[in-house]
Each structure stands twice: as C-alpha cells, then as structure tokens.
Amino acid sequence: VLLIRVAIATTSGCPNLESHRKALEGKLGSTVQIKIFNDFSGRKSYNVLWAKPTSVRQISKLVKQAKKLGLTVRTVGGGHSWSPLHPDPCQIGVSLSDLKGEKYSLDAENNRLTVLSSENVEQIMQWAANKNVTLGPMPLRVLDASFPGIIGTGSHSSNINASPIANDVVGLELVDGKGQVRKFSDNDEEDKEVIDACRVHLGLCGIIYKTTIKVIPDFKLKFSSGVIPVRKLLDTTNRKDLVMNNWGVVMIMPLTFAGATQAEKQVMNADPLRRIPESYDIRNENFFVRIWSEVDQNTPIQDPQPDSITLADGSSYSTTSVIKPFSSGIYNGAFSIEPIGCVRPRSAISFAQPESDDFLASSATLENGLNVLERIFKDIGFYSRLFGANIIRWMKHDDRCLLCNTNIADANKKVMFYEASTNFDGCNDYIIGSTGRTRLREFETEFGAGVMKNNSQSLPHWAKHNPYVPGMTDLFRSNLNENLASFLNVRAKYKLDKKNVFVNCHLRDIFTLV
C-alpha cells in the first residue's frame, strides 16, 4: 500500500537482485523491474523487484518463483499507509493495476458486488453509482486506494453506527503462498472462518485479486461543513449531541496556530525551533467539522448554499451545505489526502479508543491529546515546513472482524479514532532531509507516547503507526493477543501461507511473540 518511484534503480546493497529479476521475468514471461521504492512518508528509499502481473496465472507463477528464490512478496496498492507494511529491501513488490479480467460483477438480487483488484475506490464508487448502488461505510476521501488495501487495514468507516468497511466483505479470491488459486464465500459455512480472519488481512492471507462486498441502494445525504470553536466541542453534551444526532461527523483541527495571538506567532517565528510561548492556549483553536445528515429521499438535489448548525447548548454556527447522492458526495463531502501543489501528506499517528455512552471517554482523550500537542508546540516546536491536523472520528465494532482496531471497544461497541497527521511543504524534494526527518520523528514520538500514557485501552491504526514510537507496537500484542493468535491459527489451518511468503520484517515482529 505504498508509493513507488518510477526511476530505475541500481542493484547496490542487493547482490542477487539482477539474477532474481531475470529468474522472475523468465518465469512470468513479462517485465520485472528493479525500482527505487519510497515509502509514503518519503523517509525510506531502497531497491525492490517490481512486478505488474496481468493475469491470475502470472500471479501464481510469481509466487511460486518467489518461494523458490527465498523472496517475500508484498502487494502495493494506492499508497495510503504510513506504517511499514511495504516490501522489504531487495524483496518483491507487486502492483495489480494492470490486472486483466472482468472488472465488476453485480448480483443485484443479493446486493453483492465483485471487484477486480485493479480498480481503486473512486472507480468502484463511480461504477456502482451508475447501477444505483453504493458502498455503505465509506465517507473519507481515499479515492486512489486499492480495494484490498482499504479493507486490509480495517479502519475506514462512516459513523458511530457503522463498522469498518472490511466487515462488508463476503467473498475473497486469492493466490496463496503455494501459488494456488483459492476462492472463499460466506455462502459456505467453512469459508466464513477464513473471511472473518482475512477481513483485515494486512497482506498476509495471499494476493487478493477479487473481492466481493455487500452494497446498498444509493441514497441522498446532506453534506455540511463549518467551523466550531474547540472549546464548544470539548463540552461533552455538545459533542455527544452532534455525533449521535447526525449520520456522520468528522472533527478536524488544523495545526496552523490560527488561535494564537500575533504576539505569540512573532515569538514562535523568531525561535529557531519555532516553539510557541507558554501563553498559547490550544483551546482557542477551531475545529473544521464535516457533517453528514439524513434527509427525506424525496428531497431534490441541492447545490452548495449557506446553512447553520445548532449545538445542544443553543449556540449556532454557519455552515455550507449540499444535498446529493452519497455515491457522489463522497468525493467532495470529505477532506482529501492526495497531494495538492507542493503539499504532500507525510505522517499520521492514529489510535482507536473506546467511546462511552455518555461520551466522557472521548472527553478524557481529547483533553489529554490537546495537552500533549500543546506541550509539543511549547517544548519541542513545530518544523517550519510541516503543518497538519488533529482528526477525530467515530465508528462501531463488529465481532466478526478478528484484527479490526475497533476490537478495543467496550460492550457498547462504540469507538473513537484520535489522530495527528502532518503534511510537508516541498514536493520538489520528495525525500525529506535529515532535519525534517528528525523533527518529524520527534513530533510523532511525543504525540504517540503522550496519547498512550496512562491509557492502555488503545489500539494503533494498522496503517498509521510507527514502530519507533515506544510501546506502540506492543499495544497490538497486549490488546489483540488472542485475536492475533486466532488469525495465525486460521492462516495455518487453511494453509494460506505456510512458508511466510507474504510476511515482511515489521509484521513478523508483531506476530513473533504471539
């Protein structure tokens, strides 16, 4: 699920890379390249073997030859993972973007859509909309993500009443670690065990070339966006009312110091580390709020127009609203993480934490998180070429998903995701320089450690964690231990990858102690 640079690489550091490339190319009968791999954060760069199979037969040949050569294989999707889920150096990265075959098959009677892994989320949503159906839990804008990639980390959903989209998977077609074609459907009782385990697969169940997912009839929603002071949404009653009485809510606090006074900004900009003075209060910032609201389905489509939102305490704030089908609103009803101009996403640290029925749990998380960010800005500073956002969203847990981060939920099944992401200004220098890397690592480490402190009920986002943040990887083992073991047992029982062809170093580390 990461980004690949197009330039041809040298074989430095990988003495057998060229011979491996020739062996793979000879077996596949198609081009295998040596390429420079850049992770999504732009902090790592190394050589990988790069294959783009066009058929399931070629995928099978690739896996068999990789196994023979002692190489590992990781499938690479649209590039939206900051975590090290990517191919290891000198190993094989696979793109399915050139895969040929029937791209879509809709079973309208049973509301099931089968999709070829060459297609990304935007293409799938557009095709489905033309058939008047849509994917239910999918408001966030990750349009160029591959479908196996977006289910593979299990953290994408719509609202506090919707579980991750991985829970809508009802069928998988894949090539296993022996190079054998396997098909699993929830119509078969035995297959359900595999599907439940491999909903969040992390690339460990095989190379998935087709996914079948439940769809629902397309429907209209009102999409609204506006600005609400942080202090207002720290109020438990206001926040609970907003989240529980709307179809979906995402709260985004830009890390731009808009709430700082001019004097505070002058002090910060004069400091070499850009530390903001002690007088700064992060609670003077604002949340940009995205709200999805249900409407009568007879309501006509409506262009953007002025609107307002009223909180539980009676205070009102201006918004801009539009009414449109959910399938189309996904594109501009949410925020984008695609590169814009010379701005590129650079990092994200995210945790799933239980939400209580009274929303006091999220009050504690928000207060702690804001305190952590404020101390970072005052003690460490914020690198001048970085900016980003603090993002809060909600979803629910479904017990069928072994490795979903939402397993951290209490009995009420409610979960809040708490995240800090950063962007980097400078796409002419794709790889961040040493100063930028150091400052970014400081920020991520302090934020991650601060959020985890005295809060053992946290699960990192599979695609938004970093192993160098102390204790972060341990949370997977401590809070998912039995589920990790069950996943490994299913993987072994059905012989999905006996020789660990699909395992990279990071995932091996997580699972080794289970």
Strand line-up of the largest beta sheet: 16-17-13-15-14-19-20-18-21
Tally of DSSP β-strands: 21
CATH architecture of the largest domain: 3-Layer(aba) Sandwich
Structural category is: alpha+beta
Total number of helices: 13
The span between the termini is 25 Å
- Biggest pleated sheet: 9 strands, antiparallel
Radius of gyration: 23 Å
Overall number of domains:
3
Instruction: Sum up the overall morphology in one term.
Output: globular
Helix content: 25-40%
Overall mean pLDDT stands at 89
What do we call the CATH topology of the largest domain?
Vanillyl-alcohol Oxidase, Chain A, domain 3
Name of the CATH first level of the largest domain? Alpha Beta
Note poorly predicted spans: 1-9, 331-339
Folded structure, characterized:
- This protein has three domains: 91 residues, 2-Layer Sandwich (Uridine Diphospho-n-acetylenolpyruvylglucosamine Reductase, domain 2); 114 residues, Uridine Diphospho-n-acetylenolpyruvylglucosamine Reductase, domain 3 (2-Layer Sandwich); 254 residues, Vanillyl-alcohol Oxidase, Chain A, domain 3, CATH 3.40.462.
- It has a nine-stranded antiparallel beta sheet with strand order 16-17-13-15-14-19-20-18-21. A five-stranded mixed beta sheet has the order 1-2-3-5-4. A five-stranded antiparallel beta sheet has the order 6-7-11-9-10.
- It is built from 13 helices and 21 strands.
- It is of the alpha+beta class and 514 residues long.
- Helices cover 29% and strands 27% of the residues.
